[in-house]
Amino acid sequence: MVLNSAAQLPFFASRIVNWQKDHGRHHLPWQGTHDPYKIWLSEIMLQQTQVATVMGYYERFLSRFPDIASLAAAEQDEVMPYWAGLGYYARARNLHRCARQLVAEWEGAFPTSSEQIATLPGIGRSTAAAIAAFSYGERSPIMDGNVKRVFTRYFGIYGISSQRLTEQVLWQTAGDALAAADSSLDMAAYTQGLMDLGSDCCTRTRPDCARCPLQESCYAHEHSVQHELPTPKPKKTPPERECTMLILQQHESILLERQVSPGIWGGLWSLPKYDDASALHTACSNWGQSYKRSQKMAGLLHVFSHFKLHIEPWYVQCDASSVAEPGPRQAWVPIEHLPSTALPAPVKKILSGLFDL
């Protein structure tokens, strides 16, 4: 499966380190620290999320939760507003669980080996290795999506990278590259260099081979197969779902519903959701409300990683004399509090169209 006989394993890591020091990223807010809490937070936020999106969230989150103790002491309700809009909300729930476990079992500090770090909630092998490399200089390989792309192209590793056999080859190759590297290798620069190379140079669709420090002995460049590596997954058409959301306004408040965990929006506050408009209006009728206004709004398509959701919002305004009692997990939230409420991105977008959040 590894085809590159020209690969120069002893020089692989040093070339990446030298390139990173001259051409890599050095001014990201989570760089220049050995604090495992700050490194952990950045690594979790950067999973499936672009750097530009993470920057603002990272600063706001740290301002509110500057250390493990403050995060562990908070309730999940206090944490979720600082993650709302970032997506993949299980990350935030695991972040909170992990902080509490660190306080309960590790005296509020991170363990010092990647093997121990990987036992914590929401932290996989690659993330654990990155935390250990940046915090403690541990020589452990990482293997995220960007790094897989570098390895498959340079070493000529075919096979879908998420499949077990291919992953085993990738991890073995990454370990071999570290074993062949000089003992004085700067692990922080090497780890960051792999990330930078994959995101900035060895990109998915338009790799900039002319700038790559590995170009001379890269299998994909030599054989012009950059578009074939990593081996593409068979394309699947994501399923599509539909729902109707109720924007129920009473005086200067909106009815919101707490989403159950686990779930896509678990722990966040969303608009009450129904299968269709008929079910929504039936629910309203059952409350015995009288309304001043009922209006269908423009639909919204929200794309998740594994399906597409078509949302049909309905704006309903209660008569001033009527009082709607919230149901289970529901609450009336003042419109002025909506900007600081943990709302999913599509819900915030819908409400912003009405109330200029």
Tell me what the structure shows.
It is a single chain. The protein has 357 residues and is an alpha+beta fold. It has two domains: 220 residues, Endonuclease III, domain 1 (Orthogonal Bundle); 116 residues, Nucleoside Triphosphate Pyrophosphohydrolase (Alpha-Beta Complex). Helices cover 42% and strands 13% of the residues. It is built from 14 helices and eight strands. Strands 1, 2, 3, 4, 5, 6, 7 and 8 form an eight-stranded mixed sheet that branches. The longest helix has 17 residues. It starts with 8 loop residues before the first helix and ends with a helix. The mean pLDDT is 91.
Main sheet characteristics: 8 strands, mixed
**Gross CATH architecture of the largest domain:** Orthogonal Bundle
What do we call the CATH topology of the largest domain? Endonuclease III, domain 1
End-to-end gap: 53 Å
Query: For the record, what CATH class of the largest domain applies?
Result: Mainly Alpha
Q: What is the number of strand segments? A: 8
Question: Could you name the ranges where pLDDT drops below 50 across 5 or more consecutive residues?
Answer: none
Quaternary structure annotation = single chain
Total tally of structural domains: 2
Gyration radius over CA: 24 Å
Q: Tell the overall outline.
A: elongated
User: What is the arithmetic mean of pLDDT?
Assistant: 91
Number of helices: 14
SSE-based structural type:
alpha+beta
CATH fourth-tier homologous superfamily of the largest domain: Hypothetical protein, domain 2
The helicity comes to 40-55%
DSSP strand (E) fraction? 5-15%
Report the order of strands and helices: HHHHHHHHHHHHEEEEHEEEEH
